[in-house]
Write a structure and sequence with these properties.
Layout: H1 12-20, E1 33-35, E2 38-39, H2 58-83, H3 87-135
Antiparallel strand pairs: 1-2
Length: 140
């Protein structure tokens, strides 16, 4: 935890880039994964706790599903338009892709979900601070 963590919320683009690079959404330097599918508990650089509560990453399943659906259906439909594939050929491409892609996208889906959660949490925390300050203003 030697680095200073910026106080301002990172921009959406920075969060997406950090998520795609599998880095901490807060500082952008700490890794999310030790190796394979083993996710670290906290950021080694800034100490951000990745899993807030049990079941926190259930939403990553939806992110994974969305990525897989768009990629598989989009890919098969594009190939069909380009080459006029038969139904058998479409299924021969789509089924293995639909089975393999979720495994390949798993880490990035969790990273994107963590970035979404950090963005939403940052906004909520800031709104709460503003509300608390509003209550403590003199004459308010």
């Amino acid at each position: 935890m030697a680095e200073t963590v910026p106080l301002e919320r990172p921009r959406l683009r920075a969060l997406v880039v950090r998520a795609l690079r599998l880095r901490c959404p807060r500082c952008g330097t700490g890794r999310l994964y030790a190796r394979g599918l083993s996710m670290l508990e906290r950021c080694p650089a800034c100490g951000l706790r990745y899993e807030r509560e049990q079941g926190y990453f259930v939403g990553a399943i939806y992110v994974n599903y969305a990525i897989t659906t768009v990629a598989v259906l989009g890919g098969v439909l594009a190939l069909d338009q380009l080459f006029g594939l038969s139904l058998t050929a479409q299924l021969a491409i789509a089924v293995p892709l639909a089975l393999l892609l979720p495994l390949l996208v798993h880490r990035h889906a969790r990273s994107l979900w963590l970035a979404i959660g950090y963005l939403a949490g940052s906004i909520d925390e800031r709104a709460a601070r503003v509300a608390r300050r509003g209550r403590h203003l003199p004459g308010a």
